[in-house]
UniProtKB/TrEMBL annotation:
Any single Gene Ontology cellular-component annotation: nucleus
Sequence segments annotated as region (Disordered): 1-28
Family matches, as InterPro entries: MS5/SDI1
Keywords: Coiled coil, Nucleus, Repeat, TPR repeat
Name this protein carries in UniProt: Uncharacterized protein
Species of the source: Rubus argutus (Southern blackberry)
Organism superkingdom: Eukaryota
Length: 154
């Protein structure tokens, strides 16, 4: 079987058929750049928001998120989040996002007070999420008593 018989050719490697390479028997035809569809400005704007993970629109909350994520100006973003909260625009999200930005600027105590002061403006469904944010702040500050108060019924 493994002898040195010169009449038997080794199996070796062979090139697979072209249909194996692409997985397609008929690849799509090539289209010149001049004939391709152009992306409309509105679609391009939508792609921008998707790529940067910024909500679309022109509300106070959207402007704050743009300043936070695109302009990368946390101080200005905080003031715009305050404006969104005062305007009643996505208060739940604005309050949580503002607290996160404040934490990045080592203003955790101020973020805790903001959440405590304005959580009554938020929907009932978001109260647990706000508690989680507060617990994170309390853990970092070593405030165990306050952390436990978040889970006690009032």
């Amino acid at each position: 079987m493994w002898g040195r018989d010169k009449s038997i050719q080794p199996a070796g490697f062979s090139t697979p058929p072209t249909t194996w390479k692409s997985g397609l028997a008929n690849p799509p035809p090539m289209v010149p750049m001049s004939e391709r569809k152009r992306i409309s400005p509105a679609a391009r704007c939508d792609l921008f928001h998707v790529a940067h993970k910024v909500p679309a629109g022109d509300s106070p909350y959207v402007r704050a998120k743009q300043v936070q994520l695109i302009d990368k100006n946390p101080s200005k973003a905080i003031s715009l989040f305050w404006a969104a909260i005062n305007a009643g625009d996505r208060v739940d999200s604005a309050l949580k996002d503002m607290a996160v930005v404040m934490k990045q600027l080592d203003r955790a105590e101020e973020a805790i007070e903001a959440i405590r002061s304005f959580r009554h403006l938020c929907a009932f469904e978001s109260q647990e999420s706000l508690n989680n944010v507060l617990v994170e702040f309390f853990k970092r500050a070593g405030r165990i008593e306050d952390e436990l108060k978040c889970f006690s019924p009032n």
